């Protein structure tokens, strides 16, 4: 048992409720739930609760609330900001949804699927695909990220430019509130104007207002025609100009439009097995363009060739390759999806998940790069991201040979340097990763006054004991 034990009566009640596989107390079993994916936070917990149903989850939450035990909801544990990691006190329990893995229904008329919170995004995608449909949400961690956590953080991803964030894809939710009540918002309705949209309050709340257990997600017809290209360009301004060229021709055809810097691409090619740049030579910037349509005879190839042909003629694009098969398409996407892993392997990194208006992207990247290089000579500035929706992962990798601890000791200085530039461009310091515990200190200056006060009042109304995911989003008083 962990060295911070729960009250005996609570432990007995939880054991009877959840059974031997639903309650973990040995440190060897709970340790992996107490460290985040980036290895930035190493907490402790009194136990890990693994309910298999919403009813068991509600009963477990009610028991913990009765004893005033803090609870940390956790899905696939892929948070980039420590949003699902307990603190070091060992007083909290982690409530994992990894046993809630049922896909209940797929409705072709409504184009929806009903899934439990512990279903991975990849499993949900595969289930939709087997029915000739598509769940359009796509993120790098989709093999391990779970639906509940994705909704709790309002994840965005590669297809936001066309289909929106998780918020736009969720029609209905079921959640357990901090006192154990079950909030049933499972309505498959496009129109439901009956008071506050409580599901939207839970989406993006990072588990601070309740624990999502089930969701109704919107689907799309599966693409029957798809074209993908990797392009080499001179700089971010050229990437943005290329995006505008595609959008001018047919904005509805754009399924994804991803930017990658030369530095970040070089890390992928050098550190990821199987990654290979399919262009004649490296470039300062790259764009991964994907067009899609549910029509089998759509002229996407013609559209892709016409826009890229003109861009090559104008010197906007210096080189490009089009996928000629599904395996080639997947190889191009693998290059994009491995950027975070490559940066992790390159050493310590500071991740700035920011957004700015599209027109400000080139200015932001130029100014932030110069500022960070002046702050830490030799730093490897490796931005990439969703240029089609203004979300840039402005990631900073330690200089070669630098002690990782010395680099991370300056994380706030680097984050503030980037955030100050974002602020001048009317952007946000968190686009899709959330606040977690990493960025709570930024909230007063960015969201202070009436906005943060309103958030605190909502939190106090739903969680007066402050037991649901404490230490996340809100700065310490």
TrEMBL record:
Protein name, as recorded: D-2-hydroxyacid dehydrogenase
Residue ranges constituting the FAD-binding PCMH-type domain according to the UniProt record: 41-222
Any one GO biological process: respiratory electron transport chain
Cofactor: FAD
Family of this protein: Belongs to the FAD-binding oxidoreductase/transferase type 4 family.
InterPro entries (UniProt xref): FAD-bd_oxidored_4_C, FAD-bd_PCMH, FAD-bd_PCMH-like_sf, FAD-bd_PCMH_sub1, FAD-bd_PCMH_sub2, FAD-linked_Oxase-like_C, FAD-oxidored/transferase_4, Oxid_FAD_bind_N
Alphabetical UniProt keywords: FAD, Flavoprotein
Keyword Flavoprotein: yes
Species: Acetobacter orleanensis
Entry-linked SUPFAM superfamilies: FAD-binding/transporter-associated domain-like, FAD-linked oxidases, C-terminal domain
GO molecular function annotation: catalytic activity; FAD binding
